[in-house]
Amino acid sequence: MKITKIILICLVLLFTLVIQDLNARIPGSKIGLFDLLTDIGNPQIRGTAGYNEPVQIYRLTGSGSNIWFGQDSFTLLSKKMSGDFILQTRFRFIGEGHELHRKTGIMIRSSKATDSPVVACTIHGDGLTSLQYRTHPGEIMKELKFTIKGPDVLQLEKKGNTYTMSVAHFGEIYQVQKLESVNLGSDLLAGLFICSHNNKYSEEAEFSNTLVFNTAPDTLLPYKTYLGSLLEVMDIETGHREVVASSPVSLQAPNWTPDGKTLIYNSGGQLYNFDLLTKEPTVLNTDFVNKNNNDHALTFDGQQLGISHNSEDAKGQSVVYSVPVTGGVPKRITEKSPSYFHGWSPDSQFLLYTGERNGDFDIYKISKDGGKEIQITNSKGLDDGSEYSPDGKYIYFCSTRTGRMQVWRMDPDGKNQTQLTFDDLNNWFPHVSPDNKWLVFITFPKEIPADKHPFYQRVYLRLMAVEGGEVKTIGYLYGGQGTMNVPGWSPDSKKIAFVSNGIFN
Fold first, then answer.
1. N or C, which end of the chain is more exposed by having fewer CB within 10 Å?
2. What is the extent of the structural domain holding 425?
3. Same domain, 271 and 126
């Protein structure tokens, strides 16, 4: 019976793969996020596309003579897009290839015509990287070359008539080229492409972490209007991302419970348990506390939840409460406001939070029973995002005291405050892995004021050893406020949970 069952499972999996490949050739059939597979310019070998839904990976094959001069011949997997939007992916060529100038990447195109105006983020088999563009039908293709060779992380953004190509080797920050005053029209084709550069052969590439989404309009009112959300899980070693849920409303700040079964996030003032097995959310009861913001975290044993609520008793300012992880009537902890909760001591006896007192934002701790607050930092500017290491030896936090927002560490009594990051970006909310080896934090561009962490920005998730040192970029996303304000480590320290944003369709 066991052998028969195994054979049956294998047949089902094989049938699923066959159906996926058949769908790739059926006009109008969806392939993951995309709607249309097209052989542009009639290449001799027809292209194919497949999507492995469990791991959320695309495979694209195709031939074609070139994407150059005034005519193109290649395979495109696309969807119709309008307005301002971003395409993101991470790719790798399959096999050694037949031509140095086989090419793949992401593309925005006016039409399926062979001479269509186009903007493409193009990576060649020999590593040549360029922003290619044709602004009018039949025009000779032009390009802006990058100094980087063979990047595997790609992004192409349309904002009005400006196109921005961003590329990186996984682990590094983006290199960027910008193309302005290019009008491709309003209803565009956007997606993944491949070209063998030789009609005798077909080439193949694999794409992961692939997203296509509209971005926030300039007229969006922060904290009044919200974009949709993706709840995601990432493997910190490989950078592979898995979308576990999507929502047209704002989801924010997922915690991971110590049993590994649930994510806790906030949305619309409520807290929710998200079951990672069933992929279903349920409300976590916090009784009268119904304006929860994205400052919440579990005790190390997972029994209590610290939360921040914009209380009417405090004129709408944030107040810290605690509540059993199973829900119930919250207990008020801080009398003074605003107070924004961030972390528990390993023994569950103290809570850490940022408080604004006399115009300065500093870090405080307080007993789980409330009472007198204890000030830990006292510097000009903003100190925020405090969190104990699992062994209780240090508190990690972020501070603007040296100009940019940077990651710091101090003893539990506030002594020996030591800066750990020193770049010209803004590094927020360091979170310590359960095995006490790693810090993960969110990085905002230098154009954002150091004391702000707004919604809907082009941000990085970055990884660093707890003692400091080399910083590795592991996430490239559109997010910001609510993406990773709280500890989101999996119990085994192998994954993180976070939220990315956009208008997804």
1. N
2. 228-502
3. no
